[in-house]
Structure formats: structure tokens, C-alpha cells
Specification:
The complex is a heterodimer of chains A (321) and B (374).
Chain A (H helix, E strand, L loop, with lengths): L5 E7 L3 H14 L6 E7 L6 H11 L3 E5 L6 H11 L4 E4 L11 H9 L4 E6 L6 H19 L11 E4 H4 L12 H9 L3 E6 L15 H18 L3 H29 L8 H38 L14
Parallel strand pairs in A: 1-2, 1-4, 2-3, 5-7
Antiparallel strand pairs in A: 4-6, 5-6
Helix pairs in contact in A: 1-2, 5-8, 7-8, 9-10
Chain B lengths: L4 E3 L17 H8 L4 E7 L6 H14 L4 E7 L8 H8 L4 E6 L5 H11 L4 E6 L8 H10 L4 E6 L6 H18 L11 E4 H6 L10 H7 L4 E6 L13 H20 L3 H28 L8 H30 L35 E3 L8
Parallel strand pairs in B: 2-3, 2-5, 3-4, 6-8, 8-9
Antiparallel strand pairs in B: 1-4, 5-7, 6-7
The chains are: A alpha/beta (321), B alpha/beta (374).
Chain lengths: 321, 374
Amino acid sequence: MIRPALSVVVPLYNESECVAPLVNAVHRALADEREWELVLVDDGSSDDTARIAARIATSDERVRLVRLARNYGQTQAMQAGFDHARGDVVVSMDGDLQNDPEDIPRLLEKLDEGYDLVAGYRVRRQDRFVTRKVPSFVANRLIAWLTGVRVRDNGCSLKAYRRSMLEQLHLYSDMHRFIPALAAATAQASIVEVPVRHHPRTHGTSKYGLSRILKILADLLTIKMIASFRERPLLMFGLGALAAALLGGCFAASWLVIFATSTTPLQYDIAEAYVLPACSILWAALACYLLLLGLVGEEALQNSREAGYEDIGALAAGGIE
Amino acid sequence: MRSNALEFPAPDARAGTVPADRVGSATSEQRGRTPDVTLIMTVVERPETLDELYSEYALALRSAGYTFEVIITAEPFYRSLLAPLEAVAADGEPVRIIGPARTVGETALLRLGIEKSRGRIIVAVPAYRQVKPEAATELIAAVENGADLAVAWRWPRRDALINRVQNRALHLVTGRLAHSRLHDVACGLRAARGDVLREIPLYGDFARFLPLIALHRGYRVVEVPVAQHVNDLRGRLYRPGVYLRRLVDLLGLFFLLRFTEKPLRFFGLIGSVLALPGLIITAILGIERIAGHAIGHRPLLLLGVLLITLGIQAIALGLIGEMIVHFSINGRRSYRLFATAPAIGAAATSDAPPVVDDMLMEVEVAEPPRRRAD
């Protein structure tokens, strides 16, 4: 088969009811496109997803299946799909039919204007208000504010990527929520947004919960660090050290002020004499500690430089196609 | 560590003196091609008579029709026990003895054995009897039937209550930490495809938790219930230091399995648990200060600042961890693809397309627990 121009990557986790409708919908939506392939990634589903997808993949030459050895999570599933996509343009999409494949051509048009990444944003989102929309709104605002990458809807999986950009993008941990920020920081991607449709869930159940908010907060801090300081970790920790040192200075100063202005002879009881200087010393110690950690960060950066950013190519062999 | 390894006298040195009738079939075959099975015996604790143990395993493997080699790796402390085995090796049996020059621990011994192994299937056995030697062939059969790693599960258990309590406690923890439903991680008898064991990085004290690590890496791990050996029934209690080390191992495993790619989630949790009370304390003191009370002499202020600085330290450590992960992730992939196990007994025909519909679906197959002992 000739190398397709377009690869649609769909991670699937326990979506047995959605696979067949999804494949049909993609066929309908891309009827006018010439060369395309659909890469289904089974993320270790415990239901019939892999079996159904494998059956479709054997009968439909446009569909390929990549199976992961266990359930790794959406990020790894997407990365696996990207690694096996052969097209110069890659589109990622949710497997639950909430995204509409009919939007893909619009994303492609936008990509042709010269962008590296086209992110869809869901208009009239069909999800629970309190548990889905509100946290998502707050998170998107936070991401935009922290990273400077203003994307309205980071949670929308429907995105189009230029292959050259994807090759510089490495997804790990739970980074699929921060693809635009990560792409801007590590692959210098130019990003644009396009409104896309969103359908209510008809099959299966939603696989997210409110509990992920804490995890997202930690990830946010990480993405901020990567976006702003990946080239200069010492600066980040140095700024932290500076703040700690200033606080320590405040404590020391207030202690001196008490000494200087005290009219009665100082009572050298323990509390009076030691609490403030001790606090000041704690902050000073923290400042030293942060500076040293910053040096560790520089060390890590230096090591990765010397390792030469070895890139894709050393992929694990195997899998079903 | 490899440079420290001393190979004890190879059988070839005295091969001329071996009586012709004592040369086992395995030996002659092994010279030409790779053996079916490499049996690695690590001698680290409660060793029993090693040559008897060897002949029991050899008998079991021979009667099941496997060609095999046996690698014995022993801590220097037990070197005196190896003399009978050297005699066995001199008799032409396929035994190799590897002894590092210093004490290296069970995991390093196992890794040493794996590095020297040539078999298509590797069976790791302890130097004492937990189960019958025939169990090894059952595990090998499980691996031949498509499992990547087969673990012996001593069931039904008939040993002292104290052992069962300890075992239950261990699996309560591993079940929680590693989301595993395995029943007998502590049983030392395991069989695996050779390439699987050569691929899994073994370090620290993680040999004991090999099945959990294999599960985490997406391999098919199968439990095979086998009858417990009489020698294993006696109750065992270890020194407190041993339990402490196990606890440290479990913590390390917990971090390895859950947080290696997201250290900030771990350190961030610790950091916020520390910093939050500190922030509350200082906030209360701040309100008092605004209300006009002096707080400069309050020891509570010191506590508040201490907690905040500790919390920031933990979070900063997590951030450094994230930075190291970010730099090291380039090109490395954290997923493994599902692959049908290559046929082991037959000649490798890996070019043939896999039969999609008949692929094994299970990640972990536990056989029904109520199988009586023979």
C-alpha cells in the first residue's frame, strides 16, 4: 500500500460498542479524501474492543490496529498511534463518538494554511456542567495563564498535527491534556484553533472523574516548568531561592527592629530571643537547598544534551497491523 | 560486578575422566544447540543439600523431555556447599557454577544467571524446597502455552499459621500498591521466556517482585497452583531488620510502579500534606498580628515556617524529578505493544501473520483456586 497522506489516530479503551460506528463515520467523513488510514489503538481494553477492531482491520485495508500490552492510559495510547501513523498529517480523535469526524476536513484546511497544530474546541459541549465543564474551564484558563499558550479547549482530542512537529513531540505521563503547551514549548509549534461539534455520549460510560483534579494540578506545575524553564532550571530554582532568602531577610529584619526599638531591657527568655532568628535561618536553609537543587537540574539538562536528544526510530517491534 | 564474577571449574577440564555411561543426553545435545530450558538456582538463604536438589530438578526436566542447562549462582558465604555440585558437574551433568567474589544479593545473582543463560525458557528456583520439583515442568508448560511469565502459587497452603499470616499481609500490600491479584509473589519458583527476562531490568532488591514488574510492563503473567513441599511447612519468623528491608523494598516498588513518570504527584502529595498545616498556622498567626497581638515570640510561628519550608523542599524535589523525566524521555517509549508469544517448542516461524481472532486476551490468568494436591 502507498504511504497515506492522512492518518487518523483513535485511542480506544473499552469502547466495543463504538468501534464499528466510528469506523463508518470516518469512512463517510473522508469519502472525498484520497489517501488516508485509520489507526485504532487498543489501550488494553478488557472488553471486546480489540477483537472487534482486529476483525475490522483485517477486512478493511484502510484500518490498522495497534494493540498495547496492557492498559497504559490515553497519553501512551496516543503516542503509540502517532508512532505508527504513516501520514504526513495526523489527526487525533476520541473513540467515544463525541467528536465528529465530519470536522476533520476543516482541520486539514486550516493546517494547509501553514500551522503545525490545529486544535479543535468544542462548541455547545454536551457534558455534565459541574463535574466536567467547570473544572475544564478553570484548567484551560490556568494553562493559558501559566504557559502563555492560549488554547480554549485543551481537553478536546480532535486535533490535527503536522508530522514534522509530531516527531519532536514526546508524550509521557498524562501529557495528552497539555499537547498544545508541550508542542509550543518543545517543538516550537504554531497553533491555531477551530470550532468543532460535540455530541452527547450515546454508548459506553465516561472514563473521567472529579478525582483527577489534584493530579492535573501537579501536571500543571510540571508543564509550567517545562514551558518556562526547561532550558534554564537554575533560573527557576534560583528565583525560588531568592524568594526564600527575602522572606528570611524579613524575619531577620523584624527581629532587629524589635531589638533596636525595645525600650525595656530585653528579656532573654527563649521565645523572645530565638523564634524570629530561627525562622530566618529556616528560610535561608531553604534558599541554599533550592540553589543546590537548581544545580542538579542543570546537571540533568547537561546530561540530556550530551546524550544528544536521541530521537524516534528505536521503536519496539511487534504489534498487529 | 561482572568483572568480579569467578567461574568455578568448568566441567570440560576433567571431561576426559567422565565415564561414558554417565554422560547425560542433555549434555551432548547442549554442546550443539541452545537448550530448551535454563534453570537458574540462586543460593542466598536456607540452602538445602544442593546436589540432591539438582538431581530432583534434573530428573523432573529429563522425564518431561526437555534439554536443559543449570546455572547455580551462590553468595560467597555458601561457597562451601557447592563442592558436591562441582562433583556433579565433573560427572558431565550440564551444571555451571557462578560465584561473585563478594555478597551481591539475590537480584544480582539472578541477573548474573540470566546473563549467562542460553535457554529459550528460563526457570528461576530457590535453593530450598517450596514446592515439588515437578512443578517446574508445569510452569514451563504454562510458558509454552503462551504465558510470558509463570509463577508457582503454593495452593492449598498447609504450612504454619504464622507463614500464612505474613503471606496474606504481604499480598494485601502488593495488591494495593501494584493493583495485582497475584496470590504468591513470595514463591521463588518462576518460569519465563528467556527474552522476557533478558528485557526486564532487574536491580536493587526487586527480584522478589519480578511478577509484579512483569505485569507492569504488560507481560502475560500466569499463576500455576502447585502443592506445597513438606519442607516449606515449618513456621518462619525473621529478624526485625529483614522486615524493615522488605518494607523499604515495597516502598521502592511502589514508587517504581506508580510514579517513575510522574514524581511530582508523589512528592507533591507529601509536600502539600506538610505545607498546608504550616500555611494554616501562619495564616492564623497573621490574623492575630493584624488584630494587634505580637507574634514574634510564639514558638507556633517557628512550627508554621518549618512546615512550609519542608513542604516546599518536597515539592522542589518532585519538580527536579519531573525535569529529569522530561529530559530522559526523548525517544524512549513507556508503552509496550501486545505481541503474540513466539512459538517456543517449534522452529520459529515469526514471519507468519498472527491469527488475530485466536489471540490470548487475558493479561493475567489465575486458575481456579480449589485444585487439590496430588
